[in-house]
Amino acid sequence: MILGSSQEEAFRLLSVIETQVSPPPPIGIHPMDVIATVVAVRRQQLGIG
Fold first, then answer.
1. Distance (Å, whole) CA 46 – CA 29
2. Which of 3, 12, 33, 38 is buried most deeply by CB count within 10 Å?
3. Whole-number mean pLDDT of the chain?
4. CA R_g for the chain
5. What is the mean pLDDT of residues 32-46?
């Protein structure tokens, strides 16, 4: 996967995450950091983290 397409996918995932989490992530945070945090929290909720 090319870096540009990876970033594009990250921004798409971030837009979905922003609509589903409360409060929304801070604006200045890198999209991959937000995605990693969401995945880590979900893994903890499922007991696999």
1. 25
2. 38
3. 85
4. 12
5. 90
- CA–CA dist 11, 47 (Å, integer): 27
Domain boundaries, the chain: 3-46
Going by C-alpha positions, the residue among 49, 2, 9 that lies closest to residue 32 is 9
* HEC-encoded secondary structure of the chain: CCHHHHHHHHHHHHHHHHHHCCCCCCCCCCHHHHHHHHHHHHHHHHCCC
For residue 14, count other CB atoms closer than 10 A to its CB.
Answer: 19
pTM (2 d.p.)? 0.67
- Do 5 and 26 meet the contact criterion of CB atoms below 8 Å apart? no
Give the integer Cα–Cα distance in Å for 46 and 49: 8
